[in-house]
Amino acid sequence: MKTVVFVAAFLAPLAAAAQTPITPRFSADPSPHFFAGQFYVYATDDASNSGTYWDSTAWRLYTSKDMKTWLDKGAPLDVTVFKWAKPDAKAWAPEAAFRHGKYFFYAPIGGDKIGVAVAKRPEGPFRDARANALIDKARDPNAGDEPIDPAVFVDKNGQAYLLFGTRVPKIVKLKADMVTLDGPIRNLTINGFPREDSKKMYGEAPFLHRRGGLYYFSFSTGWPGQIVYATATTPLGPYQYRGVILDYLPISTNHQAVLEHAGQSWLFYHDNLLSGGGSHRRSITYAPLRYNRDGTIETVTRQTIGAKP
Ligand code: FUB
């Protein structure tokens, strides 16, 4: 596999107050992690789609030791890893997780199923962890209209959760093997959306992280979407709307994930940063994520992008 080195900081002087993408390849829906001593970002591939729809069939991987110089590690897997999937099924926003010495890859396929693959190393090779989908709209009660955008959260007591879904946020417990559902798929409740803004709703891109005793549920409000968040004292909610993390971008989607490492927090997301870019040609970047003393999150402004870790 050919590895391409990209030093993100090189792009910074090209435009004043510009964000810095981690790669010159069109990519989106970042799933950032710190695995085995370095940073890994799994992503949707926007460079191999038709340019008019998100119809690529492979996922991409970027790695970095310092969050400045990024390596393009190619496509660690595509939809053909899942024999039950149509070979031309669209490969959307992925998720990864590490548990019990194994690396898991959660793969939304075709808009109606989520598969899970497993590997011994974070870059693969990945193999299907089951003989069928982990989530299947046609099979599973309350899977929702569009089971996409998986996100995994493991609580301090070891309980793992899978979040996913469009328009109605879904959450389900995972068994310790990380590839089996443990109980019903539930809807997450979000209270307190501001009445003066009728556009504030749950759209897609669920993500859950914990800070102290509080659970932070972030998501995109739609198409286009803001990244907003809500908090709760248990993973299952109910959640209370708290505010905007990242405002609308000049593209039709917004999709975030929070990476915490060595006492710092980062918001990874996609934007329109590269020449020739657009709603189907997105680019991945990140910004520091900061908290106020009362636990609320400071809104990220696009100008903060490119800050050194
Ligand atoms: O990349 C395809 C879709 O666009 C993702 O599943 C959504 O989160 C949005 O970013």
Structural summary, described in words:
With 309 residues, the protein is mostly beta strands. The chain has one domain (4-288): Glycosyl hydrolase domain, family 43 (Tachylectin-2, Chain A, 5 Propeller), CATH 2.115.10.20. Helix content is 0%, strand content 40%. Strands 1, 2, 3, 4, 5 and 6 form a six-stranded antiparallel sheet that branches. A hairpin with a 5-residue loop joins β13 and β14 (170-174). The structure holds beta-L-arabinofuranose. Beta-L-arabinofuranose (FUB) is lined by residues 28-29, 44, 54, 92-93, 148-149, 204-205, 253, 255.
Q: Please, how many domains?
A: 1
Q: What is the average of the pLDDT values?
A: 93
* Ligand names: beta-L-arabinofuranose
Structural class: mainly beta
CATH architecture: 5 Propeller
Major sheet summary line: 6 strands, antiparallel
Amount of helix: under 10%
Q: Identify the CATH class.
A: Mainly Beta
**CATH H-level superfamily title:** Glycosyl hydrolase domain, family 43
Low-confidence stretches: 9-18, 304-309
* Assembly context of the chains: single chain
The fraction of residues in strands falls at 35-45%
H/E series = EEEEEEEEEEEEEEEEEEEEEEE
Number of strands: 23
Enter the CATH topology name: Tachylectin-2, Chain A
How many helices? Answer: 0
